Amino acid sequence: GLELSVNNHTADFSLTTRAGPSVSLSCLVENSNQDEELLWYREDGEVDLKDGNKVNVSNICISPVAESDNGVTFTCKLVRDTSVQVSVILDVQFPPELTGEESLQIQEDKDVTLSCNAKSNPQAETAWYKDNETLTLQQDRHQVYLTSEVFQLSIKNVESSDNGTYTCVVKSSLGEGRKDFHLIVEDRTVFPTEAIIAAAVVVALTAFFGIVARRDKIFKV
Q1: Max alpha carbon distance in the chain (Å)?
Q2: Dihedral (Cα; 170, 171, 177, 180), 10-degree rounding
Q3: Helix, strand or coil for residue 99?
């Protein structure tokens, strides 16, 4: 009947908390007729415990809880039989953190990618807007890419009509984040072919007439 309990749980469990405040985990030996030494692990790394915090009862504190602690497993084990253990997985919740604005200049016919941080827990809803209206995606020109950390919009062969303000919106039950991208499309640089040809002709004629004007001197030489 020897077993352990962590925060009154005798089986593995998930602990939901918010980023920022501290979290305490208390491991207790149940149904033992002798003193039992305990170990704590964070993932695969052993937690350093003080001597007075190892026998029969052991407490650890995570302070402050960070976003990076989300999904991390803490495990309390019995020293003389490490198969006797209880694990807790931290479910750290935080709202989207997305602010600011960015200006981008892009030439016509080039490709551009707008990228936003999409990290949040619980998972957020995402959307793209253009000039405060829901962006209508064109299958052959627009591509949306979403992972747990990144929300991107790619536009192929940018046109002058793509000028405007694009807004990335990431919204969860804990809050909303948004970022503006001011896209400025520049005219494609076109070389003035006719002007180049005309200039080349002028240079060639100038050189020709210069040679003709000096032909007498050249012949004398």
Answers
A1: 126
A2: 50
A3: coil
CATH numbers and ranges of domains, the chain: 3-94 (2.60.40.10), 101-186 (2.60.40.10)
Burial class of residue 168 (count of CB atoms within 10 Å of its CB; 0-12, 13-18, 19+): buried
- Which of 182, 162, 147, 33 shows the shortest CA–CA distance to 108? 162
**What is 25-65 written as a DSSP string?**
EEEEEES-SS--BEEEEETTEEPP--GGGSBSEEEEEE-S-
Q: Note if the bond before 122 is cis, omega within 30 degrees.
A: yes
Q: What is the pLDDT along the chain (221 residues), one digit of tens a residue?
A: 899 999 999 999 999 999 999 999 999 999 999 999 999 999 999 999 999 999 999 999 999 999 999 999 999 999 999 999 999 999 999 999 898 899 999 999 999 999 999 999 999 999 999 999 999 999 999 999 999 899 999 999 999 999 999 999 999 999 999 999 999 999 876 545 565 565 555 555 555 555 445 555 544 54
73's enclosing H/E stretch is strand 73-78
Contact predicate 12/87, CB 8 Å? yes
Distance, in Å, from the CA atom of 46 to the CA atom of 12, rounded to the nearest integer, reads: 18
- Return all residues near 30 (Cβ < 8 A) that are at least 6 apart: 1, 2, 3, 4, 5, 10
